[in-house]
Amino acid sequence: MAPSAQAHHRSHSLLLLQKLLNLRDKASPLTLILDNLEQSAWPLVTEYMNRAKISRTKIIFLSLSTLKKPPQADIFIPAWSPSGPKPLHALASEILSHIAPTPSPSTSSPSQKTLIIIDTLNPLSHPSPHLLPSFLGSLIPNPDTSIVATYHSDIPPLRPVSEYAPTALSVITHLSTAIFTVSSLPQAVERKKARDRSRQEPEFGLGENQEGVFVGLRRNVGSSELIKGGIVVEMEMRRKSGRAVAEKFVLFPSSQSQQIGKVMLLSDHPAFASPQEQDGEGDGEQEMEASFSLGLTEKQRRDREGVVLPYFDAQTDVGGGEGGRILYDMGREDDFDEEEDEI
């Protein structure tokens, strides 16, 4: 039996996400993660590092806001020096010094994979966003190197030098081959409940337009074990043909180091199942029950066949050129008009 289209779509989406997280087949040289105050990108970044550690991929961590070296990182490079921020060319030279050169074709041993983690692109993009393409491009000397960078989408960008110049976020989005947008799973569940009741969706954090936006971080919108610790990951994968593949997932990161987390489609999560599926009526196996009979008895069927339809006599003599004419008998209240009859 051939798999259904829904099962094929589910398997294809999950395999594509696993391919991106495991850095297989050079799927995405530059991956951008968009986060905000309500949901940090750190669980997804940790998932990347755990999978890279299992596959023995070298991890280079470029720190612009992280103070301590993550336990999974092999190389920790701070972007700040006692005299101030390091220039982009100095950072690029320091990162490239830790990347193994591409082996020659005569060498049979494969080159080691390298994962470059940038904890935030905001400090690098605000001064000179036009320098980001050359900086990020210089960090990929060979196809076995991948970059995973985080951008805080709720930080307002600085005004560009020219009104015709693109913003830093638009430049980074254009360069990225894969984009992940993370959001809070408990908040997504609350919005789903409001939609099911045809109510206005609640707002959190900056969307509340109130003072004390950090209250949204501490708000306990869900304590169920089905959503505890999970995050929503919206994927946009850009293929070489230009076609984008978009899907939403739920990621439950592992609490232990070097352990991969659990991934599922957002539509497969129990909290996002439709009311019919939750009641067991959406599987198509149960038949609809009614308190009356939908069939016809033999007498009702004979009576229906004996009913003469209106204007039935006009269907006779079809071969004589009179087919389709309407027979109408004038009543006493009808007003006969000779001019209309001639027309």
Uncertain stretches of 5 or more adjacent residues: 281-288
| Largest sheet descriptor | 9 strands, mixed
Number of helices: 11
Could you give the order of the helices and strands? HEHEEEEHEHHEHEHHEEEHHH
Shape: elongated
Tell me the domain tally: 2
Q: What proportion strand?
A: 15-25%
CATH class of the largest domain: Alpha Beta
Rg over CA atoms, rounded to whole Å, is 32 Å
Structural class: alpha/beta
Distance between the termini: 65 Å
Please bin the fraction of helical residues. 25-40%
Mean pLDDT, rounded to whole units?
A: 80
CATH topology of the largest domain: Rossmann fold
> In the CATH hierarchy, what is the architecture of the largest domain at level 2?
3-Layer(aba) Sandwich
What's the β-strand tally? 11
The CATH homologous superfamily of the largest domain corresponds to P-loop containing nucleotide triphosphate hydrolases
Order of strands across the main sheet: 3-2-6-7-1-8-9-10-11
What order do the helices and strands come in, and which of them pair?
Elements (H helix, E strand, L loop, with lengths): L4 H17 L8 E6 L6 H13 L3 E6 L11 E4 L1 E2 L2 E2 L2 H9 L17 E5 L3 H4 L6 H7 L6 E8 L15 H8 L2 E7 H12 L18 H4 L12 E8 L5 E9 L9 E4 L9 H4 L19 H8 L32 H5 L1
Parallel strand pairs: 1-7, 1-8, 2-3, 2-6, 6-7
Antiparallel strand pairs: 4-5, 8-9, 9-10, 10-11
